[in-house]
Amino acid sequence: MISFSISRVEWEQAAPLLKTVREKVFVCERRIPKKIEFDRRDHHAVHILVCDDHSQEPIATGRIFPTGEISRIAVIPNFRKYQVDKLVIKALISIAEDLKLDEVFIYSPLDAVDYFRKHNFIPAGAVFMEAGMPRQRMVCSLEDITNTKVYLSH
């Protein structure tokens, strides 16, 4: 049976583990230059780290800022079939709730807009280019998520 540990971590303590996941996904797989992938903003974010309980290896991550911006959601390819991404999003939303935020947002690649729509995010503003990729700002009200959780739990 597969199981995972999800931790809220700070960059200073967990950078090597977070970098392992992000390098595999963003630098190697998606060919984003390292200098763009790793920015000074990492020090100002709260990060989620997911590890495989069996191997203790880091398999997923994501970050959120006090502004509500969610970014750098990454899952190692072999673990994507287990929907670990949903665990990361749920953990980031939980942090947003702890921070008493009204909404969260993400700058989604265009090919992921439908994915984020399924998680109650809605497009906001015009499409723009970032790191050579077209992106769409997607916003999600925490009230909508809370209402969804209540609905889904019945």
UniProtKB/TrEMBL annotation:
<dbReference type="InterPro" id="IPR000182">
    <property type="entry name" value="GNAT_dom"/>
</dbReference>
<feature type="domain" description="N-acetyltransferase">
    <location>
        <begin position="4"/>
        <end position="143"/>
    </location>
</feature>
<dbReference type="Pfam" id="PF00583">
    <property type="entry name" value="Acetyltransf_1"/>
</dbReference>
<dbReference type="InterPro" id="IPR016181">
    <property type="entry name" value="Acyl_CoA_acyltransferase"/>
</dbReference>
<protein>
    <recommendedName>
        <fullName>N-acetyltransferase domain-containing protein</fullName>
    </recommendedName>
</protein>
